[in-house]
Write a structure and sequence with these properties.
By secondary structure, the protein is mainly alpha-helical. The chain folds into two domains: about 25-220 and about 245-425, Up-down Bundle (Growth Hormone, Chain: A), CATH 1.20.1250.20; about 460-550, Alpha-Beta Plaits, CATH 3.30.70.100. Helix content is about 65%, strand content about 5%. A hairpin with a 6-residue loop joins strand 2 (about 495-500) and strand 3. Helix 9 packs antiparallel against helix 12 (about 340-365) and helix 10 (about 285-315) packs across helix 12 (about 340-365). The two termini are about 45 Å apart. About 50% of the residues are buried. It is found in: Cell membrane. One of its GO terms (cellular component) is plasma membrane.
């Protein structure tokens, strides 16, 4: 059930007419029925999730007055992704994504239903609430990479940025409505426990629509490998290896962690702010907290509808710098001017800045990785982002516990302001994007006297070049660019050596863990990688192309048993 593969040129057929270009239309993907059905079902489910988030956090304020325990609700929601994000991506790249999504949707439905029953029975405690929130988000963390990774299967490539933004819009429409609905339901009952229990019960039902859409979906993967699927441990290693040698992916990961770390001060302490600092205003209580959370969501929805046009006028680096500065202002307002008529418009802008930042970083990851490692990259992105939220929530919760919410917000403002000059040096979506479509191998596998078994290895591949002195500098530059491609695609070691006796003879060597990994590396080659390889080979001088040799590790053989000769 592996899902990375090349497309044989004989299967391409006659090129189809290009689809209409709606790339400038933020709502273009909704014209596609499958994506539209998925969007509606996800939005309904997300409304339930945000109702749950609001009701659960407010229930915690009813169970305890500790700012740290209240802030730990955000940590319980974020921590599973920190530990499971890469594993979730690895499983989504190996197994059938539709089946995985069905499994984890049922997991979340069952967990929320259990939480509802325990809350109705009035036996819920702070520790139990944290534990079940943690279990719920195990399902969410395992679900999300596969959920995002199916988007390229539903929309054309040119619609991908708009589809990613609409996914964010789905979550943020829910964020605008869910907290208000959740707060209203909790406030409608005399006891917070009863209102929260009804919210949990409704949320468990909200998963049914997504399950139904997935059940009906007849999935057709973009690529299907003829090779055996990777094992989970090997998939995790190859994903980490790819990210280690992919600087264009590392930048968004660093920026996502830093941004989430500081912005978590808003998410984790907003309930405390509503209960304590705004207790004399119209925004106090569960309903007030729901309204504050809804303001964030409403601003995010506005961003989702306008972001396509904004991207045409402002480059990604400038947009991220503006949103970073804006959040410094948000922290200062929440700390120094806790007045509802000021906080509401500021939070609307905060929601706009949140979606603008996270959608931009998410798109940059999705446009920077090939299909074979797609879900693993998304899982790592979510792991990094949620890790920032989890660590930040603990940090700001502890500061608020030992001082005040005001001090925590001021510390977040200072930290965000200091980070902006550093993060601005990490560029996002700058320059032309690489062509990551799979390269269609038209040459056969090497003809060998003894074809290795799949598990044989390690395997050393040597490429022998003859490079004239005049091409040496250009070759050295290009071959070291090719090094990154070799290592990203599976090589565990790489080297380039010049013959001291004959300087025109240069040998490139890279090592694969096994013959099967070498075959996989051929499938993983993108059109951009092949263009670089072609540029290197064209510098070779001679009537024949560079000579390639394949050497397989010789395992130690023990002494023969004399009885075998009898």
């Amino acid at each position: 059930m592996g899902e990375t593969a090349h497309v044989d040129s004989t299967d391409l057929g006659t090129p189809a007419s290009p689809p209409p270009d709606h790339s400038g239309d933020a709502f273009g993907p909704l014209r596609l029925p499958l994506f539209r059905d998925r969007f509606i079902a996800a939005t309904v489910s997300n409304v339930g999730t945000w109702m749950q988030d609001t009701a659960g956090t407010w229930l915690m304020t009813a169970l305890t007055s500790s700012p740290l325990l209240i802030a730990l609700m955000q940590t319980a929601a974020s921590l599973p992704v920190l530990f499971l994000g890469l594993l979730a991506g690895a499983t989504a790249d190996i197994f059938d994504r539709r089946r995985l999504l069905l499994i984890w949707q049922w997991w979340m439905l069952a967990t929320v239903a259990l939480l509802a029953v325990l809350t109705f029975a009035n036996i819920i405690s702070p520790v139990m609430l944290l534990f079940l929130t943690f279990l719920l988000n195990i399902g969410s963390s395992m679900n999300n990479p596969a959920w995002q990774a199916i988007v390229p299967e539903l929309v054309p490539h040119e619609e991908l940025p708009n589809a990613v933004t609409l996914n964010a819009a789905s979550n943020n429409i829910a964020r605008a409505l869910g907290p208000a609905f959740g707060g209203l339901m909790v406030a409608a009952f005399t006891h917070a426990r009863t209102g929260a229990a009804w919210v949990f019960a409704l949320n468990s039902l909200s998963f049914a629509g997504v399950i139904w859409i997935l059940w009906k979906w007849k999935r057709k993967p973009l690529f299907k490998s003829a090779l055996p699927a990777e094992r989970i441990a090997g998939s995790v290693r190859s994903g980490l290896r790819y990210l280690r040698y992919a600087p264009n992916v590392q930048g968004p990961l660093i920026r996502a962690f830093i941004f989430a770390f500081f912005v978590s001060a808003v998410w984790s302490l907003l309930a405390v702010l509503a209960k304590k600092d705004l207790h004399r205003s119209s925004l106090s209580g569960a309903m007030g907290y729901g309204i504050l959370n809804g303001c964030l969501g409403l601003g995010a929805v506005v961003a989702a509808g306008t972001l396509a046009r904004i991207r045409k006028r402002i480059d990604a680096d400038t947009l991220l710098a503006i949103t970073g500065v804006y959040y410094v202002i948000v922290f200062l307002v929440l700390a120094l001017v806790p007045q509802p008529w000021i906080i509401i418009p500021v939070l609307l802008g905060a929601g706009f800045a949140w979606t603008s930042t996270m959608s931009t970083l998410n798109v940059s990851v999705q446009l920077s990785v090939p299909g074979w490692v797609y879900a693993r990259a998304l899982g790592t992105y979510m792991m990094t982002f949620q890790g920032g939220l989890a660590l930040g929530s603990v940090t700001w919760g502890m500061i608020a516990e030992h001082s005040s919410v005001r001090v925590a917000m001021l510390c977040a403002a200072v930290g965000m302001a200091v980070s902006i000059p550093f993060t601005s040096r990490i560029h996002i979506l700058k320059g032309s994007l690489p062509d990551l479509t799979p390269y269609e191998w038209k040459r056969p596998l090497p003809t060998l006297a003894a074809t290795p078994q799949p598990d044989d290895g390690p395997v050393r591949i040597s490429v022998h070049y003859r490079i004239p002195q005049a091409n040496y500098i250009a070759f050295a530059t290009a071959i070291h660019e090719l090094k990154g491609a070799r290592l990203r695609d599976g090589a565990v070691r790489w080297g380039i050596y010049r013959d001291a006796a004959n300087p025109e003879h240069i040998n490139e060597t890279f090592i694969m863990e096994s013959w099967l990994e070498y075959l996989r590396s051929r499938e993983r080659t993108t059109a951009d990688d092949q263009g670089l390889r072609k540029r290197v080979w064209e510098m070779h001088e001679g009537d024949e192309p560079p000579r390639v040799s394949h050497q397989v590790w010789v395992a130690e053989v023990g002494p023969a048993d004399p009885r075998d000769e009898a």
